[in-house]
Amino acid sequence: MAMAMTLSLTRKKQLLFGASLLPLLGFVVQQLVSGGGPDPGKDLVLLTGDWTIRMLLITLAVTPARRLLHKPQLLAYRRMLGLFTGFYAMLHFTAVMTYVVGWNWGRFLEEFSERPYMAVGILAWLLLLPLIATSNQWSLRHLRQRWNKLHKLVYVIAILGVVHVVWLVRSNYAEALVYALLTLLLLGYRLLPSRTARKHRAPVS
Amino acid sequence: MIIKRPTDIPSSEITPEAIYLRRRDFMRGSLAGIAAGLLPGSLMAEDSTAPAGQALTYSPVAADATDQGFDTREARTPYEHVTGYNNFYEFGMDKSDPAQYAGSLVTDPWSVEVSGEVEKPGAYALEDLLAKVQLEERIYRLRCVEAWSMVIPWVGFPLADLIRQLGPTSRARYVEFKTLYRPKQMRGQRSAFSTIDWPYVEGLRMDEAMHPLTLMATGLYGRSLPNQNGAPLRLVVPWKYGFKSIKSIVSIRFTEKQPQTTWAQIAPREYGFYANVNPQVDHPRWSQKTERRLPSTLFNPNRIDTQLFNGYGEQVAHLYQGMDLRKYY
Ligand code: HEM
Questions:
Q1: Residues of B in Cβ contact (< 8 Å) with A119
Q2: Looking at the domain assignment, is residue A93 inside a domain?
Q3: Residue bearing the CA closest to ligand 1, atom 38
């Protein structure tokens, strides 16, 4: 613990950066070491999908964690977590397009129009794009109040993301239910009218 | 009875196996050490893929068998993938779960309950059933409903050979199969979140069951089935989606009415009783027009067009003459 306390913020951010890349690194190492199983494209689709929703939930957990743990300084990590959500979402989209859709746009339109879980995923992904584009100091300064409004989209994205995940379950709902429950808790927290929540509300960004 | 001395193995079978073993030695020596240090146990599941099981006595597939659909010239999916990557929800949801967890299943002794519209019902010891049949090799494409496929050299016997000996009555119009239900050894059956109502049930129409392509497999790659592939006895119906090819069978029942099969019960809009491979009829949640032939790689997804009846149309299309395949999917 004492060590952790003495780490500079920059060093901690570097550590978080490395940790956020671990799932992808693990995949790469697995490919190199074991040849990676017979269907690595599908594995990549699932891995990146899983880490998109996980990163999204971790990002959404920052605000409650700041208040409940009385650590307002956690805000410093939120942007990086949000950008990693975007990073895994980009990879997920690319993997789906490469290994499921085969970059065939006719097929893409068919998937979008005929498969609601795909449409919901794509919608979530599209909504992520403006958030990624405005995750920088410049946008923050120039958009001001509008930045806050814009980034409320993350709640919509979370709901769409979870709908996407629950919808594609074939027979075992355990993992999807965990994601749904966590999303419910994290979004529900924002609706709490409780005085404590308001009292501890730290300035947003 | 199904065990044979190594000298009896056709030479064609010995070579590939030797290569696998050599490859495994190489992997063990040079890479596994690094891997063991880096990777969690689940990634090391490969260890269960060394050819296991007993060598079987069987007649190799005949040279002219391609016309009947008994053989294919396509490249076989390597043993390690056939046995290391599949669905067998009784052992878990991930495709590596069966290889990792099926070791706990005890398949000896094994008995099969034969019941329903049949002249010789009863509980048959597996040895007694196998004593009535001749094992042969069949090299089939296997198309999973999830849009991936493999080519697998099975060892087994035509289901028709067994059915003839059991003597179904004239009222028998369908055959129903059940997988073992033994939660103590099958961890997937213990999951509280599964929507599957165990045991797993599958079925065929009588003419489908009697078709020469329909195989009861006891082995693959010349050796007895590894547990994860459905030991000791499983069905293989190559023109239907993989989930029809029920594993670890303990019950064969002849019925007048169409059996209530597991997936058709869970999601009737997504999985029908027939489940014939058909690129024109999409699964509601994904397209069936193409498939990834495994092994695929990140740089070559190996996507190929899916064929009607998985390419066995010449042999089986007549079974479905006049049927609307969109309605009876
Ligand atoms: C922010 C948006 C998204 C999130 C949070 C998300 C999340 C996920 C998750 C968690 C999975 C399941 C992984 C598993 O079963 O282990 C998944 C699978 C999948 N997603 Fe997404 N996804 C998103 C966007 C998209 C987009 C844009 C597309 C299409 C272009 C897409 C298509 C798919 C497909 C095809 C699968 C695999 C289904 C299967 O074959 O099992 N997703 N996604």
A1: none
A2: yes
A3: A168
pTM over 0.90: no
Q: What is the pLDDT of residues B283-321, one digit of tens each?
A: 877 789 899 999 998 988 898 999 999 999 999 999 999
What span, in angstroms and rounded, lies between the C-alpha atoms of A22 and A136?
Answer: 24
Contact B39/A30, CB-based, under 8 Å? Answer: yes
Please state, in angstroms and as integers, the Cα–Cα distance from residue B108 to each residue in B63, B126, B262, following that order: 34, 9, 26
Tell me, what's the ipTM?
0.72
Domain span at residue A159 reads 38-191
CA B238 to chain centre: 9
Q: pLDDT tens, B198-211?
A: 999 999 999 999 99
Q: Tell me whether A31 touches chain B (CB under 8 Å).
A: yes
| Cβ of A162 below 6 Å from ligand 1 | no
Asked whether the beta carbons of residue B292 and residue A39 sit closer than 8 angstroms, the reply is yes
Distance from the A181 Cα atom to the nearest Cα atom in chain B, whole angstroms: 14
- Domain tally, chain B: 1
Give the nearest partner residue to B89 out of A100, A111, A171, using CB atoms: A171
In a domain, A14, yes or no: no
CA angle A78, A83, A89 (to 5 degrees): 130
Residues B217-271: tens digit of each pLDDT: 999 999 999 999 999 999 999 999 999 999 999 999 999 999 999 999 988 888 9
Q: Has residue B1 been placed in a domain?
A: no
Q: Is residue B5 one of the residues assigned to a domain?
A: no
Residue nearest to atom 17 of ligand 1 (CA): A49
CATH number of the structural domain spanning residue B16: 3.90.420.10
Atom 35 in ligand 1: residue holding the nearest Cα: A96
State if residue A58 touches ligand 1 by the CB under 6 angstroms criterion.
no
Would residue B4 count as lying in a domain?
no
Q: Is residue A99 included in any domain, yes or no?
A: yes
For residue B31, the 8-state DSSP code is I
A-chain residue closest to B86, CA distance: A38
Q: Which domain holds residue B157?
A: 11-320
Beta bridge partners of B137: B155
- In a domain, residue B181? The reply is yes
Of residues B46, B286, B290, nearest to A34 (C-beta): B46
Phi and psi at residue B143, to the nearest 5°: -110, 115
CA of B302: how far to CAs of A17, A93, B175, B290, B296, in Å? 34, 19, 36, 10, 5
Residue A65: inside a domain: yes
Residue A84: CB within 6 Å of ligand 1?
no
Q: Calculate how far, in angstroms, residue A45's C-alpha sits from the geometric centre of ligand 1.
A: 7
CA distance B280 to chain A (A): 13
* Count of structural domains, chain A: 1
Q: Which residue has the higher pLDDT, B43 or B121?
A: B121
Contact present, A135 and A205 (Cβ < 8 Å): no
**pLDDT (tens digit per residue) in B181-197:** 999 999 999 987 778 89
E strands of B94-147, at which residues?
Answer: 111-116, 122-125, 136-143
